[in-house]
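Why predict the complex rather than its parts? Because the way molecules touch one another can change local conformation, and only a joint prediction can capture that. The input here totals 622 residues.
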Amino acid sequence: MRHVFTVRIGPVGFRVGSDWRAPIEQLTDLYAGYPQPEDGVPDFTVRLFARRPWRRVVRPSVMIGGDYILPDAAPLPLAQGLLAAEMGMNLQMALGQRRYLLLHASAVERDGRALLMTGVSGAGKSTLAALLSHRGWRLMGDEFALLDPQTGLIHAFPRLVSLKNQAIGVVERAVTGARFGPLLAGTPKGDIRHMVPDAAAVAAMAIPAAPALLLFPSFGHALAARDVPVSEAFVRLTQASTNYVAMGERGFGALTRLVQAIPAQAIDYPDTDQAIAAVDAAWAAL
Amino acid sequence: MAWAADGWLLARVLRSPSAVAGLDAAGWTDLLAIARAEQLIGTLAFRLNGLDLPPSVVRILADARASADHGRTLALWEAEAARRVLAPLGVPAVLLKGTAFVAAGLLAGEGRSIGDLDILVPRDSLDVVEQALLAAGWEWVKPDPYDDAYYRQWMHELPPLIHRDRDRMIDVHHTILPLTARITPDATALLRDSVELSPGLRTLSPNDMLIHAAAHLFADGDLAGGMRNLWDVHCLVSEHGTAGLVQRAELHGLAHEASRALRLAAALYGEGSALSWADRLYLRRLTARDGWGRRTRPVLRQAFYIRSHMLRMPPAMLARHLWTKWRGGGAGPQTG
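Output of the joint prediction:
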């Protein structure tokens, strides 16, 4: 392909090829502090391409391809090429990753121990991870936490933090000095702006952490917290994993050990200040 | 790399794994992308197991082996599920393709990617088999009445069924080529000479397995997935030889297809073979893949796609079929 970008995010190497220069330039800029794939051999390939040759220039729209694809994925306008690249990388992980059990969760680390936060889209996992990373926690990732079935450790996957809609303003105001990508308005998921993880998160991304606490945050409710039983945590995490079924017995074993090893709590919150306070309280009570 | 990567890169490495010694990082990247696109990454992983490889490649191939092992477990369980439905009817399930290879422990099954479960049953048991599968949780995939009627009248299999709990597809065949094709394989002989694996589970005889792969590739399909099919052929030949193959292929009317399969498999994975100009065209089509895993040579692909439909049905019928599919907005190489 004409334009190529390669990167390593956590333990996973990617190669992104594109018919257009712009998405590759944006990736190169935003991932400037990241290393290259180990041995120069990426784990996954992503392709951004025009459906027909003339669509490179006439009303350009970006099709997402790669090693693993969803047949019915709709193209994105070229202005959202960066989002297409990020979606393409996430798609390879969701469909092709077999080394780690993927938990659709954000993860932050402190003292070698990881806090996992998972929930439906809009629950606030990305926002909370971004805010916590500004308050002394190491950002391990806002999309996927990688659970190693052999060691039970969580591996970091600190790709660009994907902030959506109101979360963009909240994080922009709170996290001073952070780098942000272009504002992508009117995407299928609303407005999106990517935040570059800080240098410490990137420098430490090869260091795994032992899971310590599992939270199910939920935005838009009066403050409340309750303990989540092991059985419920297990079921909610099977639903939050994109490769649980494909991992077979290894996935079942890994997830069973995780929910038995660490406490789980559901936290409802009306605003981020109260959420941070609730997270601090739950962490302090460990 | 000295050459532009295409399917030949993968073929060379499958033929002689020591060829990876000449690969740089870009070569490995191309090889892995091509192997994934041809659904041969698991096969490649088994073939290269134990070699001294870059650590990143070792990890990627270990993942592919784990994935193939899991796929094998699922395929065998699905075969067992079908056996349990068919056993009370007194109909053995004759396993076809990938599931047959892993169930029989054949070389072709090592690392093989397996999608649907394909079984062969006698044509006069189709109705009871269909009813039993529906009663056991399988459901129709194709809601379109035209497709459904087309399958029942003209195809070599029932319309595909999918299990509502396990989300796995089953194709119930009663022969190995569409009824519209000019060639009519001897379905009775396929069943009669099938081999028992365990009570209620059978495979085709080794020669019939090879002939089925050749029929699927050259008398029916547009050569999609052909590198994998010819790897199957190559493995079958290396384990079982070709004794009696010619007579058997003549019985099924598939002598041309079987000998072409042998020539092309030998060209790709074996000791080579004397090739006709047509063989070379087939090989160009089979290896039409670039280092990004993309399909290449679109004109040649389209030609083989059209050819596959001309083989499958007479011209008037083809015109009517394409017209119906076109109005429905479905037909084309993307969906085929």
